[in-house]
Amino acid sequence: MSGTIFPDLKGKSVYITGGASGIGAALTDGFMAQGAKVAVIGRSPAEAFIAEMETKHGATPLFMQCDIADVPRLRETIQQAVGEHGGLDVLVNNAANDQRHALDEVDEAFYDWMQAVNLKAYYFACQEAARQMDNGGAIINFSSISYMMGNTGYSIYTTANAGITGMTRSLARELGPKGIRVNALAPGWVLTQKQLDMWADPEALAGHMERQCLKEHLKPEDMIDPTLYLASQASRMMTGQCMAVDGGVVVSG
Fold this sequence. Notes:
single chain; alpha/beta; Rossmann fold; seven-stranded parallel β-sheet; 9 helices; 7 strands; SDR_fam; 3-oxoacyl-[acyl-carrier-protein] reductase (NADPH) activity; KR_dom; 3-oxoacyl-[acyl-carrier-protein] reductase FabG
């Protein structure tokens, strides 16, 4: 857990997609440690995690079950969070699915579902959040360095992540006059339990480590401080940017 304190995040209303598992669970923990009011959506029940957060922080995150591909339900959960927490200050679009696939095996239904989860949901969450942010706010869209690397094996996912960066830049310009900042955060290979269970074999881990400048594998907790920074007034004049947090694999500029 981060020891960094962002005083302006205390009492802020934060909404996180996929906030009960993987990177999202670390983000929920991180915002609650700052004293923020956190709303979380997830596709699966999360009673154990919610109880853990209540025990740890003395406050309970608002959990709502939602498949982010269901846009009407997604809107409904944002509106519920606004009603219960008295507004919306921060949206974190984190939920994603990096299911592996080859070009030749993809059909239209799978393509549409992958884009619905990995890009469409982000767009409409931004739309609803912007409608609810009456006093400005911060939107953080999780992208990935995978599209910058030209990684193979999940081309729909990398396509969506490139789209997230483009969307972030355009929405930053559109929403700037309302005082809403929009930035993207592109993690490297973060070793969540899902990654460890499905794809992080020793050969793949060694190959990726060779590409990193910093010789330490990324953990979900490594995404907390960068996200808090983008949400806080510490980055108040930063918008339309894509910030890579990857141990030094890709470069920008």
